[in-house]
Amino acid sequence: EAQVTQNPxxxxxxxxxxxxxxxxxxxxxxxxxxxxxDPGLGLRQIYYSMNVEVTDKGDVPEGYKVSRKEKRNxxxxxxxxxxxxxxxxxxxxxxxxxxNVLTFGAGSRLTVL
Amino acid sequence: AQSVTQLGSHVSVSEGALVLLRCNYSxxxxxxxxxxxxxxxxxxxxxxxxxxxxxxxxxxNGFEAEFKKSETSFHLTKPSAHMSDAAEYFCAVRQAxxxxxxxxxxxxxxxxx
Lengths: 113, 113
What we know:
The complex is a heterodimer of chains A (about 110) and B (about 110).
Chain A: E1 4-7, E2 10-13, E3 19-25, E4 31-38, E5 42-51, E6 54-57, E7 65-66, E8 76-78, E9 87-94, E10 103-104, E11 108-112
Parallel strand pairs in A: 2-11
Antiparallel strand pairs in A: 1-3, 3-8, 4-5, 4-9, 5-6, 7-8, 9-10, 9-11
Chain B: E1 3-7, E2 10-14, E3 19-26, E4 32-38, E5 44-50, E6 56-58, E7 64-68, E8 73-78, E9 87-94, E10 102-103, E11 107-112
């Protein structure tokens, strides 16, 4: 089944404890992206990648890192999480730009205490 | 820069009534437009997309949307609401050669029995 898989789905952590949210897609998509969803703000893009070893900042990159060493994986790294990073995170991928549909993962709900 | 405005953060309708969700975009050229739905505790699922082939687009679950260039709008409708339509709906826009998908703030739909 074509899908984007995120882990963990739920995580409660404490301020400053490094964590990684993994994202993997099995559709051979070039483009991958991370979004965060907050009430009243919709989805905002954190980082994106147009191919292996090609990443760039989205609208809200502060406090996050990403890497794209393999085409299928695009992990999101929080080096020193803070409470304002408590959010619902989505990974998504597509085969290209424009009209190509973005396929989303099921989401990862992160709480930073 | 492109942006998306969804008028109304919450919409409440009776079962069997018309569902109308409003979306306006700002862009120098007509973009590709998408409507996504998010059911509780799930990821985003594509309802429909506009790609310039036809101004009236039909999607899944009885939804449709009409692209109006003169009004820069892409409103989503469903003639008769079902209880299962209770969800959050997002309008999104993407330019032809752009990878980034920009989202509106979302509209939560409640269906009353």
